[in-house]
Design a protein that fits this description.
alpha/beta, 8-stranded mixed β-sheet, 8 strands, 11% strand
Length: 377
């Protein structure tokens, strides 16, 4: 096991994982582009094809977490609602505290069979980024500019387009709008004090307008809100680099199913409801900090093999021609060719490190870092 752990931490392994992800992602993007004419003939068929194509990309990241890192997940939830997971449309409200909480959200989706069709609220700029951004575009992900005057109309229209979606989906929503940091928390609590709202210890104040618009436009389509609170055992702070290094984490996820019809339709009442929800989430986090567990019974949803099978398929398909190319360059004896290969690998290595760095909390969005009045709550 020590040798395997050391192997997983080698940059060569990271380069292979990233090479397979990027090249397969571009291939999938091209296939998605080829489905464009099909949207004019059969929108639902085009959607189903893109769900499968999208899964080819997103499941590779889940495979890295579940199978390469071996990260475990314990779910705290009501046994009566557990059978409904994956069998209905839902809005999943997640806390935004870790570098890999988005990845844990995807893993949660995958274990209940809705990863390919899962949705998020993403920044407008991401739709132009190859692989992930283009995949999201064809999956009808909801993009926003973080300008309420514009987003109120465009986000609502994008959500309305999902009303006839052919397969069950989960809409993942980070209501805090940005990852938790001490600076952002201090500024957020200053806003809470100025508005007479109870202060939170483990969360930022939620952005209520986006939540209200989401709930209003998915009424009659989504059956429930899944209030989800994520934490990691032993006070660990997981990172994407740790996952790539094969470090095993143990995630604990507390999920409550709240019927959508129980959420107020009035905007002001919905805002108050969401603030109360985050006060409850804060109490759950406090319970976890004191006891090392969330309240209620536990279950460990099994990993699905499809994410691993998908990665192995793409690895076999793409690594063979790469091996032939590298062997040809090495045996050619050309100093220029070998130098070019080393330079390319070094550039890719630096690029991988840079991309991983962008996922770290310290390099996250400045959204919420500056002191300003929140006019969207």
């Amino acid at each position: 096991m020590g040798l395997l752990k050391q192997l997983k931490s080698q940059m060569l392994c990271h380069l292979i994982i990233c090479y397979v992800f990027l090249v397969s992602g571009i291939i999938v993007n091209l296939l998605q582009i080829c489905t464009s004419p099909l949207w004019l003939v059969s929108k639902q068929l085009a959607r189903r094809i893109n769900i499968r194509l999208g899964y080819c990309i997103s499941s590779q990241m889940v495979a890295t977490l579940d199978w390469w890192s071996g990260t475990e997940c314990t779910l705290y939830t009501d046994p009566k609602t557990y059978p409904l997971y994956g069998k209905e449309n839902a809005i999943v409200v997640l806390n935004h505290s870790y570098d890999i909480d988005f990845l844990c959200g995807w893993a949660f989706c995958d274990r209940f069979g809705v990863l390919g069709s899962s949705k998020v609220l993403a920044k407008q700029e991401l739709r132009y980024v190859p692989v992930i951004g283009w995949m999201w575009y064809f999956l009808e992900i909801v993009f926003c500019k973080r300008k309420w005057e514009v987003d109120r109309r465009t986000v609502a229209q994008s959500l309305q387009n999902l009303r006839d979606y052919p397969e069950n989906y989960w809409f993942l929503l980070f209501c805090e709008g940005t990852r938790f940091t001490p600076e952002k928390h201090q500024n957020s609590m200053q806003v809470a004090e100025s508005k007479g709202l109870p202060k939170l210890k483990y969360h930022l104040l939620p952005r209520t307008k986006g939540f209200w618009v989401t709930v209003q436009n998915l009424r009659g389509t989504a059956a429930a809100v899944y209030d989800s609170t994520l934490n990691f055992r032993n006070n660990e702070v997981p990172t994407l680099l740790g996952v790539l290094n094969g470090k095993k984490y143990h995630a604990d996820l507390y999920v409550r199913r709240i019927p959508l019809e129980s959420i107020p339709e009035d905007e002001a009442e919905c805002s108050s409801w969401l603030h109360k929800l985050y006060q409850e989430k804060d109490s759950f986090q406090e319970h976890y900090t004191q006891t090392g567990r969330f309240p209620g019974p536990t279950v460990s949803p099994p990993r699905r093999p499809w994410a691993l099978i998908n990665w192995l398929f793409w690895a076999c398909l793409l690594l063979y021609p790469l091996g032939l190319l590298l062997a040809q360059l090495t045996t050619s004896g050309s100093t220029l060719s070998i130098s070019a290969s080393v330079a390319l690998c070094s550039a890719v290595s630096l690029g991988v490190r840079w991309m991983i760095g962008q996922t770290e909390i310290g390099r996250g969005s400045n959204y919420g870092s500056k002191e300003f009045p929140r006019n969207n709550n």
